[in-house]
Design brief:
Layout lengths: L3 H25 L1 H8 L3 H17 L1 H11 L1 H18 L6 H15 L2 H12 L5 H30 L1 H22 L12 H10 L12 H4 L3 H22 L1 H8 L4 H30 L4 H23 L5 H17 L1 H12 L3 H30 L3 H17 L14 H4 L2
Helix pairs in contact: 1-7, 1-8, 1-9, 3-6, 3-18, 4-5, 4-7, 4-18, 5-6, 5-7, 5-9, 7-18, 8-9, 8-14, 8-17, 12-16, 12-17, 12-18, 12-19, 13-14, 14-15, 14-16, 15-16, 15-17, 15-19, 17-18
Length: 422
């Protein structure tokens, strides 16, 4: 019989798959949307950034809700909400309405990964946390990869509005199944064996029931929290370019058709899925050898190094295939940072894992917000993407330095960055 905790990971993998299909389909539909609504590239950048802003602002509150009310109810609610706004995207009639709808769509998606982090804290032993997190984010990357060519073909066949409605209905179905199957406490699951229950409870991180929940102010007094936030800003700055602007960038720069651009654009996301799995395996492999801190640092630092190199070398390529090859290296590296980052949040957050991971993800998606605007505006001002790519590479180098300071064994409480080095 398949262990129930593996079914949990499979379910969150499918959710991450859907989440990124819903998120990236607007970039795939850029052509018909901008034509129908009469939007400029700068206006489309604001629409993409509206999603990132809504997604960023609701991270900490929805993470705290998952800690308080449990991921069963919270995840059901947020999937239903974001699916509703996915469908309502088809009802937008101008720039302003699309801006508001995509902001609310981002706010709806905000609780997804913090709620998954809280479920992982309760259900997965520490030595399985890296792979579990890596599998989740691999689902997101495969969803983005799937969306590029397949959603492009679906839009050509059904139109962009009908495609968004279909995705809404799929989300409603997932939410209903999750509420029926999942339990916040694995011990309360009616189909969990006694052996698996005892194994989970014996090997997961200690649940500290005493004390008040961590407040946002308390988190911002933690050196660990600031390190997590800034390095995740750097990671998202790189990744969100591929999520938001890669498809139209390749299509325009290399004079590609929509489906062809979709297939090229999917390659970095497949590489990202592999990066997530690889990092998850490395995290757990090093952790099982008694090197808790290194299990978080090594994959993250290696990933940021690959991201910086891939971004710079992509600029030297003359063909779409060459550019995509090095951008795939960059996204493989950027996604290697996810498993250690989210495992680190669960390490220091414990019973407040939802709020802590949500706060880190908030900072990361401020990076996404900046990326959505930085790319079109820098391109307009300079006439070349070079400046944007070098800024992204520099942020990756900064993140490598920041990872030398982290202390995953230090639970969330006010500490200084200098103390983290000890």
């Amino acid at each position: 019989m398949i262990p129930r905790r593996f079914i949990l990971v499979g379910g969150t993998f499918l959710l991450a798959l859907l989440l990124y299909i819903d998120r990236v389909c607007i970039s795939t539909a850029k052509g018909p949307i901008t034509q129908e609504l009469g939007l400029s590239d700068e206006q489309f950048g604001w629409i993409l950034s509206a999603f990132a802003l809504g997604y960023a602002l609701l991270q900490t509150p929805t993470g705290a809700l998952a800690d308080r009310f449990g991921p069963r109810r919270v995840l059901t609610a947020v999937v239903t909400l974001w699916s509703l706004f996915t469908g309502l995207t088809a009802a937008a009639w101008n720039f302003g309405s699309m801006l508001v709808i995509r902001f609310l769509f981002g706010a709806g998606e905000a609780g997804a990964f913090p709620s998954m982090a809280r479920a992982i804290f309760s259900w997965l032993p520490m030595k399985e946390r890296g792979v579990g997190t890596g599998v989740n984010f691999a689902g997101g990357r495969l969803g983005a990869a799937f969306a590029m060519p397949v959603v492009a073909a679906m839009i050509q066949r059904l139109g962009w509005k009908a495609s968004f409605v279909v995705l809404m209905l799929i989300g409603f179905f997932w939410a209903a199944v999750w509420f029926w199957w999942f339990r916040d406490d694995p011990a309360a699951h009616p189909r969990l064996s006694a052996a698996e229950r005892d194994y989970i409870l014996a090997h997961r991180q200690e649940v500290r029931l005493a004390g008040r929940p961590s407040t946002f102010g308390m988190m911002l007094q933690s050196g660990n929290m600031w390190l997590a936030m800034v390095q995740y800003f750097s990671s998202n700055f790189t990744f969100f370019f591929c999520l938001s602007w890669l498809f139209p960038y390749l299509k325009k720069t290399y004079h590609l058709g929509a489906v062809e651009a979709g297939w090229y654009s999917s390659a970095p996301f497949v590489a990202g899925a592999l990066g997530n799995i690889a990092a998850g395996v490395i995290v757990d492999w090093i952790f099982r050898r008694g090197r808790w801190k290194l299990s978080r640092q090594v994959p993250a630092m290696a990933g940021f190094a690959l991201a910086a190199v891939g971004l710079v070398l992509s600029l030297r390529m003359d063909t779409a295939a060459g550019a995509v090859l090095w951008l795939s290296v960059a996204i493989f590296g950027a996604d290697m940072t996810l498993a250690p980052s989210w495992a680190f949040c669960t390490d220091i957050g414990r019973k407040d894992s939802g709020a802590v991971s949500g706060t880190m993800n908030m900072a990361g998606n401020i990076g996404s917000f900046v990326t959505s605007l930085a790319f079109p505006y820098l391109l307009s001002w300079t006439g070349t993407p070079t400046v944007f790519f070098y800024v992204a590479a520099a942020l990756n180098v900064l993140a490598i330095v920041l990872w030398t300071f982290v202390r995953p064994e230090q639970p969330l409480e006010p500490i200084s960055i200098s103390e983290n080095r000890r």
